[in-house]
Amino acid sequence: MRLAQRLLPVIACLLGATSSSAAEGRVDLELVTVGSFPFEQTRDWLAMLQKLNLEGVRIRAGTEDDVPEIATEGSEKSPVYKVKGLLTPGGNLILKGAKFKLADRAALGRWMDKLKQGGEEGLTAKPGAFGLFPKQLAAVHQGLSGPVDFSTAGGQPKDIIDKLTQKLSFTVTFESGSDTALRSAEPFPDQLLGVSSGTALAAVLRPSGLVFVPVKGKGDSIQLKITDSRSVEKSWPVGWPTDKGKGLLLPDFFKTLNVEIADTPLVESLAAIQKRVNVPFLLDQNSLARQRVDLKAKIGLPKANLSYARILDKLLTQVKCKAEMRLDEADQPFLWITTLK
Fold first, then answer.
1. Which helix (H) or strand (E) holds 4?
2. pLDDT tens-digit readout, 101-118
3. In which element (H, E) is residue 31 found?
4. Rounded CA gap, 294 and 305, in Å?
5. Cα separation values, 186 from 182, 208, 217, 237, 310, Å
6. Which of 16, 330, 274 has its CA nearest to residue 149?
7. Are the beta carbons of 242 and 325 closer than 8 angstroms?
8. Coil, helix or strand at residue 114
9. What pairs with residue 31 in β-bridges?
10. Would you say the C-alpha torsion 167, 168, 170, 174 has a positive or negative sign?
11. Where are the domains of the chain?
12. What one-character DSSP code corresponds to residue 155?
């Protein structure tokens, strides 16, 4: 047994030279032999673990205080997961919440991949939207929360998309035909200055029949795929619904004033209201075009004392439209002008 204990660090050093991808979390595995675990099997386990490309594997004799555990170290961008597992006399590897035998290399590999990609949470969490774990979705949301710092009104969609994606930390890929669709698109009418990058990206792509989807890249990396809206079931939305009251998020929206509008193009009234309530208006160009809504149509409003919210509602109702309050990725409100249907 003494010889075995002296050999264990030597065997561990041989495996410690294995490398892993810098794009994902790293696993440092410590195996602890307990009870009468047969020493000759340690070589078999190390040989199997080498095939999983694990880094920093060590084996030592255990004590009665050793239990399976996972400790997270390193940084958020480069986490290191310190894993302790028990090698038991029955030939089992006991990890936190899991048990494996020598023949379970594929299952152990999947366990390690989940840990690398989603941390300890990823071992039990089920993938959510876009096949991503909650931690990954939160990272995408955060990465898309930076504000647009340039004017978009009247800009060419391809130029706007290029400027937006250059500022993102994600790799962005264009599916076949999407680049051509953007280059041939009409100028983008809305002003997105100050709106978060994710909402802006989705809004600019939408009139061209395009969307973007976060997808898993190599290791723990996430990529953004720009593609035809018909090719995916779910895509990143133009903002997010909220249960918060409009009065809390948009206090200016509920200020009242005496108003009378006579034979004025709707687009002019929308611009005037937008300036006063200090919130972005984003137009659902697709739905407006589908329902043939003419924003230049001249409409009116009888003299009354109304809040901006009621004025907007009454104006939009005349062309069978409505305003929905949504939040961008930075939790800043905006109004989504869309059709009733």
1. helix 2-15
2. 999 999 999 999 888 888
3. strand 26-33
4. 27
5. 9, 9, 32, 21, 32
6. 330
7. yes
8. helix
9. 59, 85
10. negative
11. 2-125, 137-231, 246-339
12. B
Tell me the per-residue pLDDT of 262-314, one tens digit each, with 9 for 90 and over.
999 999 999 999 999 989 999 999 999 999 999 999 999 999 999 999 999 99
Strands 171-174, 98-100: parallel, antiparallel or unpaired by DSSP? unpaired
CA dist 87 and 95 (Å) reads 9
pTM for the model: 0.72
Domain boundaries 246-339, CATH class: alpha beta
Give tens-digit pLDDT for 311-324: 999 999 999 999 99
Distance, in Å, from the CA atom of 164 to the CA atom of 300, rounded to the nearest integer, reads 38
For the chain, first and last CA: distance in Å?
A: 77
- Write down the pLDDT at residue 318: 95
**Closest C-alpha to 34, from 6, 78, 83, 68:** 68
Question: Checking DSSP bridges between strand 93-95 and strand 256-265, what pairing results, if any?
Answer: unpaired
Compute the distance between CA of residue 237 and CA of residue 324 in angstroms, rounded to an integer. Answer: 14
Residue 327 β-bridge partners:
240, 333
CA-only gyration radius of the chain, Å: 28
Residue in this structure with the two tokens 């030279």, named with its chain if needed: 17
- The values of phi and psi at residue 45, to 5°, are -65, -45
- CATH number corresponding to 137-231: 3.55.50.30
Are 137-231 and 246-339 the same fold in CATH?
yes
Strand partners of residue 301: 261
Q: 132: which residues sit within 8 A by CB, 6+ positions away? A: 140, 214, 216, 222
Q: How confident is the model at residue 219 (pLDDT cuts 50, 70, 90)?
A: low
Smallest CA-to-CA distance from 267 within 245, 249, 283 is with 283
Number of other CB atoms surrounding residue 110 within 10 Å:
11
Cβ-based neighbours of 337, under 8 Å, separated by 6 or more? 270, 281, 282, 283, 284, 288, 316, 321, 322, 323
* pLDDT value, residue 29: 94
pLDDT digits (tens, 9 = 90+) for 128-150: 889 888 888 999 999 999 999 99
